[in-house]
């Protein structure tokens, strides 16, 4: 690992200033993405800005009809939170499926969303639930936040501070995971919201997380897995690799969406 300078700011403003003053500085919270890359010498940031010691950045609470999760809240904290379990059980279940115990006790929701790995779980929840990414500068809707593989709308000195999730009427997340990495080969998050239904897919898209509008249109008319019979997902634009072909992933999207709808209905 290359030499670098480590910074431990006490506030988000201090962290943002460090990003401005130190060119090519990188943020770190749990470190489960950046540290392994640095160990492999695939990245050598001259400055690391640690967010994990900023007070209040890991809060989980309800504000009105929204579940608000601080950026440095760890996956295990989201999974085990009574607040999350009461408001959006599907989100708690999703967090409990991330990686292994070591990853869940160090990795953070903000770090996951900032990295925007195309096989990560949280992007599917953010897109399906219509969440808002709050930064030190502005608020970003899910649709404008995700911009492709490992790409987001975040600016160089912009820091995620929290995520606001509107509480849905029903929701569920089902994942078919790679047994070695536990990343989603395909993951589907289904949310029945007051005004619409959203189906978001992670792991399968060559351009990252995406919505399946054909499924959404059918489910909006009747929220039952049966209405999806006969509706196929195209393999165009889907990943194809040693873990599964694009056609296999397209098939999985259909299977997992049906299972997610059944799971969401079973929670009544």
Automatic annotation (TrEMBL):
GO-annotated molecular function = FAD binding; oxidoreductase activity
- Record's keyword terms, sorted: FAD, Flavoprotein, Oxidoreductase
FAD-binding PCMH-type domain residues are: 1-170
Q: Name one Pfam family in it.
A: CO_deh_flav_C
Query: What SUPFAM superfamilies is this protein classified in?
Result: CO dehydrogenase flavoprotein C-terminal domain-like (SSF55447), FAD-binding/transporter-associated domain-like (SSF56176)
What name is this protein filed under?
A: Carbon monoxide dehydrogenase
| Protein source organism | Bradyrhizobium pachyrhizi
